[in-house]
Amino acid sequence: LDLGRRQALGLVQSTLSAARNTALLRRSPARVEFEVGGNRMTACAMSVVGTWHFEDASLRGAFGLDAQAAGPKLVDDGFLGKALRFTAGEAPKLEVDVMRDPAYRFEAGFALELALRPEGSRACSVVDVGRAFGLQMTGTGTLRAWFLPMQETQGGGSRPGNHVVVESPPGILTAGRWSRIRVHYDRRSLKLEVDGELVAELADDTPVYALGGQLIVGSAERTLQASVDSLVIATWAADESTQLPEGVVFAPETPARIAFDAEGRLERSEHSGDVRVVLTYPEQGSEELRINRLGVID
Prior knowledge:
By secondary structure, the protein is mainly beta. The protein has one helix and 23 strands. The chain has one helix at 3-26; strands at residues 30-34, 40-52, 68-70, 73-75, 83-86, 93-96, 110-118, 124-129, 133-137, 143-147, 150-152, 158-160, 164-167, 179-185, 189-194, 197-203, 215-218, 226-238, 242-243, 249-250, 257-260, 275-280, 286-291. Strands 1, 2, 4, 5, 7, 14, 15, 16, 18, 19 and 21 form an eleven-stranded antiparallel beta sheet that branches. A hairpin with a 3-residue loop joins strand 8 (124-129) and strand 9 (133-137). The two termini are 21 Å apart.
């Protein structure tokens, strides 16, 4: 038996299977990134790291991250149960000390979801997550999602770049009506969705730069006039890279990454059909694995 071949093919198959199984188990996306022309691969999966539903004055959150609030009031007519209402004149703000939690690492991507019911059209910050990414409203009813990208310096270090921003069309929000909003970045594109519909998207693949700071809902400078409910923060978490045996490389036919959706199928927005992972061996030809649209690996 050629143990090098057998081991290489088995490593790829097990990494892809683990990513797909994680997507199915968590009901959230997963992906495997390949060093095409090289011999490394990395699996990433989306994991929820914080949820807040504002059902009582304790403002208790999941995973032991409770919120501190100054100004906003609990109201009974929330999106699901109760909600937190921010009103003008009180400079209301809610803060959560998330950056002390090691799970809040956003280099590989993130997702932000919340229900929002605006009461006015004042330009303001809705959510700012550790100064790494956030959501804003403008005076025209436009939503603006952003993140802070990482740029490499000549000395081999890193620094923050200019904000990457997407904006919805004007009037996407209606005063007095709940909207479910989702901001998602996966090192391929920054997407903004409202009530399940994609309203803005921008291609980008830079890592997220985290300056460090609190999760802040509202702002003391520009008062948020809205109710907020069902706030969820998720992050893309990468496993340690897996290296193939020496001399085995991923051929050019291999995509830079294979993405699975929450159903364990190939992500249709990235893959129009079946995909192949092709391994080349030193002086011994090549072998391939095929992944069909349902995510089954052959």
